[in-house]
Design brief:
The protein is mainly beta. The chain is built from 3 helices and 26 strands. The longest helix has 7 residues.
């Protein structure tokens, strides 16, 4: 998140893109036959690993062609808008330092293309790789039904025939450029959890009044519960504590057994509050699932039942 509310950034919570390493440039080969009904257009993605952990799944990176430039953009559903990173695009000639926006002639991932609209240019974002041109925000899904196929590493626009799939739905809310799902974390029933693919390594982050009262599991002599290291928008190193909890956590229609839950950092709490969110949900809760973001009215969040259940 930025200090200015409702503005886009890659990684609405920690800005992990500044510390991401592209774990590979080959597109995914595997496909999921489960989602063939209703699928019209798809594009693939690769995982980026966190710094020092190249095989981790810290961020969704989408191969992108903008005009004649090729690179990657992080998929960040926690960001309301799609944004270019001027520190990279000025250097490669895609943008000029005098520009505040760019209206591209072409914005595509493979054969999947978006109708071009003016993209804001952010020159404050620190980016470690010249391949990362910016981030794709929630606006790319606006008004449509979209499949995120984590095992197959692809994202698809659905064509309306998904009733042939076995899907468990839960209500969602679209407000102020944010996609909210409901959940139960410990004793707290939370109606507005921000779904943020920019917070990939996390299951769920909650405010301290929730995090502190959740009973945790302690294993004598066992390894410590890993914290997540990252970087804030300004490059400051961050340490995010987590705890392995007893019982279950419900995120939309997904039930996690004894998952890791993370505390929301102090400097981010007012920003998350201004977004109207009770916490933040990342990719880690759904890595072996196929999920659907339905941003039509009424909004819904779905999990395809035929996907493999995740071992916690």
């Amino acid at each position: 998140m930025r200090n200015r509310p409702f503005h886009s950034k890659a990684g609405v919570v920690l800005g992990f893109v500044s510390a991401l390493i592209l774990a590979g440039t080959a597109l995914a080969d595997e496909k999921s036959a489960d989602v063939s009904p209703g699928v019209q257009r798809c594009f693939n993605f690769v995982w980026a690993g966190a710094h020092g952990h190249p095989h981790s799944r810290a961020g969704i990176m989408v191969p992108i062609e903008i005009n004649d430039q090729h690179g990657y953009m992080q998929l960040d559903t926690g960001a309301p808008r799609t944004v270019l990173y001027g520190i990279v695009t000025d250097r490669n000639g895609l943008t000029d330092p005098t520009q505040d926006t760019l209206l591209p002639n072409k914005l595509c991932s493979g054969s999947y293309c978006w109708t071009p609209s003016a993209l804001r240019i952010d020159r404050r974002k620190s980016v470690s790789s010249p391949k990362i041109l910016g981030h794709l925000g929630l606006d790319v899904f606006q008004g449509r039904e979209t499949l995120l196929d984590y095992p197959g590493r692809r994202i698809c626009a659905l064509g309306g025939d998904e009733q042939n799939l076995k899907i468990t739905w839960s209500p969602a809310v679209v407000s102020a450029g944010s996609f909210f799902i409901s959940g139960v974390v410990g004793p707290a029933h939370l109606d507005r959890l921000l779904f943020d693919t920019g917070s990939g390594p996390f299951t769920v982050q909650v405010f301290p009044e929730v995090w502190e009262v959740i009973p945790s599991i302690s294993v004598p002599g066992g390894p410590p519960v890993p914290a997540i290291e990252g970087h804030a928008y300004d490059g400051t190193s961050l340490h995010v504590p987590g705890k392995l909890i007893s019982g279950t956590v419900l995120l939309g229609p997904r039930t996690l057994i004894s998952p890791l839950v993370y505390e929301l950092l102090e400097n981010l709490r007012p920003i998350v509050s201004r977004r109207g969110a009770a916490g933040v949900v990342g990719d880690a809760a759904f890595l072996d699932q196929q999920i659907i973001l339905d941003m039509r009215d009424p909004a819904r969040f779905g999990v395809i039942d035929s996907a493999q259940p995740r071992a916690e």
